[in-house]
Amino acid sequence: MGNFPILTAVTFLPLAGAVLIMVVRAMTGSQESDVASGNKALVAGLIFSVATFLASLVMLASFNVGEPGYQLVEETSWFANVHYKLGIDGMSLLLILLTTLLTPLSLVASYGSVKERLTEYTIAFLVLETFMIGVFCALDLVLFYVFFEAGLIPMFIIIGVWGGADRIYASFKFFLYTLLGSLFMLAAVVFMYLQAGTSDIAELETFAFAPEVQTWLWLAFFASFAVKLPMWPVHTWLPDAHVQAPTAGSVILAGILLKMGGYGFLRFSLPMFPDASQMFQPMMFALSVIAIVYASLVAFRQTDMKKLIAYSSVAHMGFVTLGIFSFTEVGVQGAIFQMISHGLISGALFLIVGVVYDRMHTREIAAYGGLVHKMPVYATIFMLFSMANVGLPGTSGFVGEILTMTGGFQASTWAAAGAALGVIFSAVYMLTLYRRTVFGQITNPALESIKDVNIKELITLVPLIIGTILLGIAPNLIFNVTRESSLRALQMITGG
Amino acid sequence: MLDFEAIIAAVGPELLLAVAGLVGVLLGAIMRDQFNAISFKFGAVALAAAAAVVLLNWSGGEAFNGLVSTSPFVNFAKVVSFGAGALTLLMGENFLKRHETMRYEYSLLVIFASMGIGVILSASNLMTLYMGIETLSLSSYVLASFHRDSMRSAEAGLKYFVLGSLASGLLLYGISLVYGFTGSTAYADIASAEPGIGYLFGMVLMISGMAFKVSAAPMHVWTPDVYEGAPSPVVAFFATAPKMASMVVFANLMFTAFPGAFEDWQLIIAIIAVASMVIGAFGALIQNNLKRLLGYSSIANMGYALIAVAAGAEYGAAALLVFMTSYVIASIGLFGGVLAMRREGGMVENIDELSGLVRRRTGLAIALTILVISIAGFPLAVGFLGKLVVFEAGWNAGLLPLLIVLVLSSVIAFGYYLRIILVMWVREPAERFQPVDTVVSAAIYLAAIACILLFVFIGPFTDWATSAASGFYR
Amino acid sequence: MLPDYALLFIVLAPGLAALIAGLFQKQITDRGAMVLTTGTVGLAGILSIIQLFAFAFGGHGGETHGEHGEAASHGLHHVITLLQWIDVGQFQADWAIRVDALSIVMMAVITGVSGLVHLYSWGYMDEDPHKARFFSYLSLFTFMMLMLVTADNFIQLFFGWEGVGLASYLLIGFWYHNKAPNDAAIKAFVTNRVGDFGLALGIMAVFVVFGSVEFEPVMTALKENATVTPLALAEAAPVRELVLPFLAWNIPALELIGVLLFIGAMGKSAQFFLHVWLPDAMEGPTPVSALIHAATMVTAGVYLVCLLSPLYEYAPWAAGMVTVIGAVTALYAATVGMAQNDIKRVIAYSTCSQLGYMFFAAGVGAYEAAMFHLFTHAFFKALLFLGAGSVIHGMHHEQDMRNMGGVARFMPFTYAAMMIGTIAIIGLGIPHTSIGFAGFFSKDAIIESAYSAGLLGVSFAQMAFWFGIIAALLTSFYSWRLIYMTFHGPRAEGHHHEDPADSHADDHLDPAHGHDHTPHESPVVMLIPLGLLSLGAIFAGLLFYGPMFHHGAAFWGDAIYRAADNDVIHNVEVLKEADPNPHWWVFWAPLAVTLTGFLIATFTYLFNRGFGRKIAESGGPLHSLFANKWYFDEIYNATFVRGTSWLGGFFWKTGDKKIIDGLGPDGITSLVRWGSRRLSAMHTGYLYHYAFVIIGAALLFGAVIFWRVGGAG
ipTM value of the model? Predict the structure, then answer.
């Protein structure tokens, strides 16, 4: 491969697709019917996102697992001392793969489910994909910020245009919440750039900020990542955003956008502000545990399927922060694993809700019941992912939970005990949801004619099923890749 | 003895514009209504030529015993202003034609206003400054009420005139105080004078006057009404060329004439900046008229620009240029958008008229989205980097409270910027607009592309601005 | 010992069969699924039983040490590693199959009972439309249970632990169209999760203390009192002296781990406080109750405690807790069992009670006795359940004993089997001889051990002994009550479908079965398992008393560890053979109370039929207490269930909506909009207002400068 800029290619391939679709659309204008051109655009988008996935596999192949540090680095000057610099380590590699996997799946899921304005829809997803990949491979702080923020616009449009009834409120809330958080980060970015004279992430990792400065910088980054993750108490945008977003939007939101928060903590907070990270450990533990318990309890009371899963996401991301801030190898590895695993599981759960939503156009739990009689395959898949979400051993959900909790236990038994409490509640809300939708008698006559999952839906779900089980049984596939990056992050925080 | 070369270097563009204006008057007198049709091209060519002359004399010079003196810093602003003036002039042509007010006086007024712009930028003496400002202002008053038959336009012109005169009075009073206490009107002499209380009062009054010109709060009060009432092409002009120039002049005045009272004017300008950011953010939030909204948006943006001014010459000068340029580019595009909002039966100005634009005119909607993103200072477009350098300047100067307001007001401002995007993307399509004039759509697309390109290739651009501002580093 | 491939087959084949039967049920049809799963599990069962016999009587026993060298001294005879599972720093866990005395016994019990239950289900589930699913679940359970008992690390154990929970959940809720099974399934899963809360924390504590989650290093460290360095939490110290900070307390590490792990065991084995799910689990099909909720899964807790004997030997408080909880459960469940009318619930409470016995045996240090009882109990409890299932089947899914009576003549074979089961569970046998049913050997071993431990000063052992004696009395009573109410007396007429008490009784019933309410004997496929289990219920105790208890040391080898000062079992022999024997009454007491219970039951339910019902209807406080299970469900409902729900609603409506959103985004938004409106209102459009603002501002700036200069001066 030599000097071929594979990361740039992976990052901007979707954007190129988006521009192409845009140009074609502008040239053909409105001669074609909306539906026909929309479907073509979707297929084109799918081709591009699959190509991106393949390109990311090439990236995987060129990646040297055992080697510490950043690889496949590309660098050109941007302005002043800011560079366009890309590069990946094990952690970002996996998150990119997750992104390039989930995007085509979301597009497939949208086929036939999204009926209006498919062209713009496809464009929005492709643009979003570029930004998401960019976030994970940017090695310059300013570049990172640009990608980090830029993703808001397409997501804003996705929620705002193709969302549910209350989409305007939700999209605004999503946007402004996240924006406010990340502006603090921007301030910190500027400060770090001015103080260290560089915005190169690798260099900043070795730059020692004074402890009191670290505190402020840490808090500024925290403001951004905590909202993104989201942590309690800045999580309230998530349920609204999820409920209103179209299925594919929820998949991407839960699957990838939330991971940026965890990624940020690992990539920036720990290595760059080790002292502050140590100092804030108790607070992070407290917030993580509150998130786990609180969100699980709230999830239990939801009447909307997506809202329930959204709250469950909040709880599961609590494990991520718990693991990261345990500063143990077990915890950090578990946290990365949990991010990947949650990407698969929550993505699948949102697809699962989407399946019945497409048929019934309601997400009210009460409108369902007895689905198993008409949709046995659906019921089986739903059961699998419910169990994965509950953290049943053998699924990927378990590995992340047990490791993050074990990591947490080493630092604070309170945190571990609290998190373990959340594990109980997760069973409560998930099984209740399952029982109320899938089991029981059919009470809603409209369900009598409901059809089981079709091929399209299976295509979207099967990769996630395979991933969830495979990673549950052989999680070392992940750990081997992330070992070096987590050890590196730990080394920096323990001052090694 | 006049050193002709030095004069050309210092005021060549202004002379060119003056000549062009006079030729225009002459042509008008001869050709009468036949001149109307070509006057716009004539004006645009004149402005472009003026810009070219500026570029040719980039390093600037001094003339008339120091009454005028140019530097790359002000020349930068001149190029942008003249360019913006030329573009907005062309964009307005068809608009005025449709409103049956396509008269050559319009272009001549723009030329004279631009000459005023040139003069104030070149000024290094308070008297020159005042003369330039009056030239600019008087032309602007007439432009604002150019639609003589429209009540709104006339009212806008009148308000602008009365308040503008008040501001000019403040400015003049300030000048006389400064003159009285320092014995000179030359920037250089003032700079070396001991700042006493009278001197400072004079300076404050001058700041107040300048704040009016850049429509910074609380001297912004005219802005929303004039933006709403004046004809759209005129507003497009107001929002770009004079804004750029006045702000740079403001900065230039502070940096060169009052360096000794840095901390005093920094405080006042900081107050103005905060007020502008807050009022700009809050005021726009509930506006439905797009022009009025953009008026508030401009107030907010002037607030951001004033942070660069308050940061002082060393940190702020280059940042100011970058920020203002990015602002001007986005503004041209957005006012192009305003000009594109035409239906049968005339112009529409309500935001809701943009509903579902993305379905009716995908390209236009995407371009406008980029422009809104840029003016909002969101990553992906040059506006973000403009804000970033301002932020950096403020940070370097230790203006933390201002930056906090900057951040918070930006978030609030996003509320209305997002609303525009939302309306274009989310709402059910409204009735289709009439075809957009070629020049206007070209301007919109160019502005949008420029926003993206400048974002990607910001490096050379900032280098240019930095070198232009380097005269202040000493 | 069996060759590796046979062991692999035993453990993995049921899982594979479950997978095939579950995923390809359309392709292989119901019949194919049934043949496949039953065949696989049956074969695995035969292999396991061969292995058990070979192990117990083939001269292996404890003498296998030499054969497998290094592993032997740690109690791990043989480990087959399949695949590395988790490899994160010190956190190492493999997928492995561990074969030692404990797992050999458990494998035999699991696959043996499971094979019979599979077979039995051919008849019992004959009318069910979802047979493939049912058999798939049964095999899945078997697989998970095998994974549990053959784990060589805590994580795989946890996998099996939760896996059997899943299978149990699926099987309890097998008739998912009804509310009651669904509720019961969730209750079972969630209650188990409460236990798993402890188990998970216990495993974490193990990891922190020992730096490993694998049995071998942990057991070695425990036995050798190695010095360990708990990661970050405390100073290095010999493990038995190590004190670990946990929540607000400092607790000896081993006690902490012991208690936490035991909480897990309490959940899975339905011990006091966490027992509430087991009776409800009877909503599942009866074969499930026999397999999961009597013979195998619920004994996992006992297995865990015995497996961790090296831990509990040095954690006296934790062991004390095991004893107390076990003893209380034994007694408590027996009291409730006396007042139940649902035939399956009686047996369920009986299971609870018997598990209590096992626990207090383990608690006082007689792990061999616990395992022995676990082993024999599997036979007679499965027998009782399958017998009850046979009755239910024959009675057209009637489960209320009040609607039964006189069934014996219609179902003689079932009656005989139930009699054998009952005699086995009450532990009938003649002390000091080898004459007796299975329960006699194992239960008496437990009671004697408890007494012996009491003499040796083991805490709570005496209490456990007395509780055990009383519980034996009650056991005898409710067991005979069940027999009499079901099989004797006049045949109860009428089939009270409208009776709310039996509303749970099965509307899944195939209408083709008709409404002929005459009881009938069950088909042969159901009777064969009854017969085989009867044999076990009669002879298992006699056969294995020697290897498992009397010469336990040799049989269990290092799989069960006893501290040097643990003389409990040996002391039993000493007490038994003392001459003159001051403790003679201890050996006769079980028989005495058993007979007493039998007599009371016979009096109230056989000779004075209706007397029992009269007591019930008179509704005395004691009866109400027992019949309502000491109001556990009500209390839990009022506190935990309602409390959780209330808290969830509070966090959602007040926390999220009112406080966070109200003060946060929504509040700020409305504040901003308010400010915006005010500002707009100030924009009057009047020139003089504007002029005033401009001049005012200019003056204000002047004032600021004046103040500054003045201040500076």
Answer: 0.87
